[in-house]
Amino acid sequence: MTIRQMMKKWIRELSKSTTAKLDVELAMCKVLDVTRLYIHLNLDEEISKKDENRIEALLKQRRKGRPMAYIIGKKEFMGLDFFVKEGVLIPRPDTEVLVEDIIQQAKKIDNPLIVDIGTGSGAISVSLAKYIKDSRIYSLDISDDALEVGAVNAKNNEVEDKITFLKSDVFSALENEDIKFDIIVSNPPYIRRLDIEGLEVDVKNYEPSLALDGGEDGLDFYRKITEDSTKFIKDNGILGYEVGYDQAEDVKKIMIQNGYGDIRILEDLASIQRVVIGTKI
Ligand code: GLN
């Protein structure tokens, strides 16, 4: 079968996926060890029977709903490659809005000291370490899987010297430390508990509920992190969150109640209020 024929067949087979063509390309890239550009330029190349079988094995997993990032073991975020596996949330493009803004804010700070609460795959921490000169990052997570994957990503992206990974329930690992941060950032679990059942199969059946479940109203972690943050933030320090589609105003209120001001709400590319950022005053 040629690349083109296989592409057509599997785009049909994956009709439930909104990203069928990309899914097929990524499976081919993985097995054939080529780039997507190579696929585009060599559509009439024959695929060996052995490779065809290997590609089909991956795409059959996709047909059941397993996210492509777990199948091929990687996801791109902020132009960097991240290793992912079940047990850590797959980095989302929405989160790039938060990272892009923090990178801009950090330019005004010398040697910024940053903490990322609930670091997961390390997507936020590694990108900040990579793109903010002279930054130092503490990456905290309660999940051992996350800490392990985060460390691999820091190493793969050559920023392991800038990041300290700590097992921590929100700020617990820093409780006895005298440390204050210029920037506190988090994409915490924020899905309302009762809404988890309603998430799409790909998310619900494969991604860790530990990274999704934000308690009854989805705001548990915003309350906890914001309250505890006041012990760990410098004057004029920045607190930045990713939030769920209808949570921006609630999170803004929580921040104001805890002494934050100059609050900005940023939209993602789907025009959803996705990021809330404030300054400690
Ligand atoms: N953006 C994720 C989703 O909608 C949720 C991530 C989170 O809870 N932080 O599936």
Automatic annotation (TrEMBL):
A GO MF label: peptide chain release factor N(5)-glutamine methyltransferase activity
Listed SUPFAM superfamilies: S-adenosyl-L-methionine-dependent methyltransferases (SSF53335)
InterPro entries, sorted: DNA_methylase_N6_adenine_CS, HemK-like, N5-glutamine_MTase, PrmC_N, RF_methyltr_PrmC, SAM-dependent_MTases_sf, Small_mtfrase_dom
Residues engaged in binding S-adenosyl-L-methionine: G118, T119, G120, S121, G122, D141, N187
Gene3D superfamilies registered for this protein in UniProt: DNA helicase RuvA subunit, C-terminal domain, Vaccinia Virus protein VP39
EC number of the protein: 2.1.1.297
Alphabetical GO biological process terms: methylation
Catalytic activity: L-glutaminyl-[peptide chain release factor] + S-adenosyl-L-methionine = N(5)-methyl-L-glutaminyl-[peptide chain release factor] + S-adenosyl-L-homocysteine + H(+)
Key word Nucleus present: no
Assigned keywords, A-Z: Methyltransferase, S-adenosyl-L-methionine, Transferase
All residue ranges annotated as the Release factor glutamine methyltransferase N-terminal domain in the record: 6-73
EC supergroup of this enzyme: transferase
Binding site for substrate: N187, P188, P189, Y190
Keyword Methyltransferase among UniProt keywords: yes
Pfam families recorded: MTS (PF05175), PrmC_N (PF17827)
Methyltransferase small domain mapped to chain residues: 95-192
Function: Methylates the class 1 translation termination release factors RF1/PrfA and RF2/PrfB on the glutamine residue of the universally conserved GGQ motif.
Family the UniProt entry places it in: Belongs to the protein N5-glutamine methyltransferase family. PrmC subfamily.
Protein name stated in the entry: Release factor glutamine methyltransferase
Gene name in the database record: prmC
